[in-house]
Amino acid sequence: MRDDIRILRKKNPLVHAITNNITVNDVANAILAIGGSPVMADYVEEVEEFVSLADCLLINVGTLSDQIISAMLKAGKKANELGTPVVLDPVGAGAGPKRNGTVMKLLENIHFSVVKGNLSEMAFLSGRDVVTRGVDSSLSLGEDEALEIARICSEKFDTVAVVTGKVDTVFYKNKVARIYSGSPMMSRITGTGCMSLGVIAAFAGALDDPFIAAASAIGSMGASGSFAEEKARDLGTGSFRTYLIDSLSMMSDERLEKEGKIKYED
Q1: Pairing between β-strand 175-179 and β-strand 168-172 as defined by DSSP bridges
Q2: Which residues of 136-168 are buried (b: 16+ CB within 10 A; e: fewer)?
């Protein structure tokens, strides 16, 4: 049994998050629950100072402005200079030219340890001609196609690629992990994708291997989604959100191994 969560909580990594302002509170709480420490700073004049202190930088493009884009670029370049891992959620990639251009500019100027997106977002990054429907995926592909999209993105950007869906896929340098846990209710509340990147960032700030960090994070989110669905089945989505955070805070290596349903493949 791996001890990734024990390591994470012992280190208590500082995650500098430049994230979607709609879900910033959820992201901060998810990072805290899994065992990290968040700082939500996006003022362009101070991002380099916070990156210098951080164990991981999180960039989520859900809500953009000229200032935010400048802050992301400045923080990402500083993190690369320092050797600090950077993780990306290309929210809405494929939805329109300005957003698409911003995502590609980030990928051209910053090296990301992990890039996580839904099928449509990652298909766009892989070079497919797709149109993303808001922040939701407009595609429904089989596991083999999702794996191919993850492989292309991973090799194209030299990153751990995470493609989320009914089955989540993680790929890096011919290593594959599929995660079979989770709940359909996760798509019925705002922010579970953003929270997932927060959990990935916490693991990436604590572990040396970004592939294992991504797989363990997605497994932790999936296990928590399954737990929350069982608890909130007769209560509704508000209770589901609460139980999701509760479950992350109670996650252990034993629970992750049993309930995360992570299948590693060669």
Answers
A1: antiparallel
A2: ebbbebeeeebbbbbbbbbeebebbbbbbbebb
User: Which pLDDT does position 209 carry in this prediction?
Assistant: 98
Q: Are 192 and 244 in contact (CB under 8 A)?
A: yes
User: Under a CB-based contact definition with an 8 Å cutoff, are residues 98 and 141 in contact?
Assistant: no
Phi, psi of 59 (to 5 degrees): -125, 120
Q: Report helix, strand and coil shares of the chain as percent, to nearest 5.
A: 55, 15, 30
Q: CA 258, CA 121: separation in Å to the nearest integer?
A: 30
Low-confidence residues of the chain: pLDDT under 70: 130-142
Query: Given this model, what pLDDT does residue 128 score?
Result: 82
74 by DSSP, 3-state: which?
helix
46-73 tens-digit pLDDT: 999 999 999 999 999 999 999 999 999 9
| Distance from C-alpha of 227 to C-alpha of 46, rounded to nearest angstrom | 39
Q: Could you count the other beta carbons within 10 Å of the beta carbon of residue 100? A: 17
| Integer-rounded Cα radius of gyration of the chain | 17
pTM: 0.94
Residues with Cβ < 8 Å from 40, sequence gap 6 or more?
A: 17, 19, 24, 27, 28
